[in-house]
Amino acid sequence: MTSSMLTDTFNRNHHYLRISLTDVCNFRCLYCMPEDAQFMPSARLMSADEIEQIARIFVAQGVDKIRLTGGEPLVRKDAADIMRRLGKLPVELTMTTNGMLLHQYVEVMQEAGMTSVNISLDTLQSQKFLQITKRDAFYQVRQNIDLMLEKGFRVKVNCVALRGWNDDEVIDFVCLTKELPLHIRFIEFMPFKGNQWAGASVYPYEELIQQISAQFDIVKLKDELHDTTRKFKVIGHTGTFAVITTMSQPFCSGCNRLRLTADGKMKNCLFSENESDILGPFRRGEDILTIIQQNVLDKKKETGGQLLRKYEDMDSEKIVNRSMVHIGG
Length: 329
Fold this sequence. Notes:
Blueprint: E1 16-20, H1 48-60, E2 65-69, H2 79-87, E3 92-97, H3 106-111, E4 116-120, H4 126-133, H5 138-150, E5 154-161, H6 170-176, E6 183-188, H7 205-213, E7 218-220, E8 229-234, E9 240-244, E10 257-260, E11 265-267, E12 276-277, H8 279-283, H9 289-297, H10 324-327
Parallel strand pairs: 1-2, 1-10, 2-3, 3-4, 4-5, 5-6, 6-9
Antiparallel strand pairs: 7-8, 8-9, 10-11, 11-12
Helix pairs in contact: 1-2
């Protein structure tokens, strides 16, 4: 692994960059996109050329993994061009997507050297899928999950677990790992601008594991330093499952992630209140490396300094942040 030169005041090395290609999405999931969401004009977004050049600066500082996010990255017209450009860099290139358009991009992804993909799917019921996303695309997404497995991709399925909404499907998701080499990741519901977060809606790690272990014999797998998940496996199953414990048990001490929003703002944490403008100075021909380094040095110890350890007592209206769709998944 490349030694990162982007080290913060807590001695965390940052070598993983998440780049949002767009704040537009072809789904309308409320936990991610507020009902009144406004999208940025394309002139404000980083161009393919700017994404490549800025990414090269990060790679020169030790970044060795890049994840493309959105909105939905594949709705961007030049997504294929961006993948091909970044695929030439000495990084592990991957993507988080809602899966709807994957069948159109499999060959390009392979050409760019991608071997893994994260696909968001919050229900295994077609009618509930329509309610959540406002789109009748459940069977297309399921087909594309199967397609990516057939093509040899490592597939992680991201499921935002909400109490009273899809917590009754946890076992069904785990059952998918019996025959399929899928990696199911249950994500605790996180607060963002306009997503109607409430502590009571969080379905936390301990309850999830209790529900699953009551049904299956499970074993704990080894978690690495930079993992955001607590990983498990049902004995005898092909795939695995995990929980992203942002709310109940934050994993900030091993964080190695940095983010670029689609309009070229750098965030050192998903929950950071402050952002650093990278794109503006870059377009003016200024040196952006010092801005990048200062952004890393400004990183707070935990959850952007905004989330309470006892999340049940938190007032999400007091959190200063963008909506999830405007940050990048």
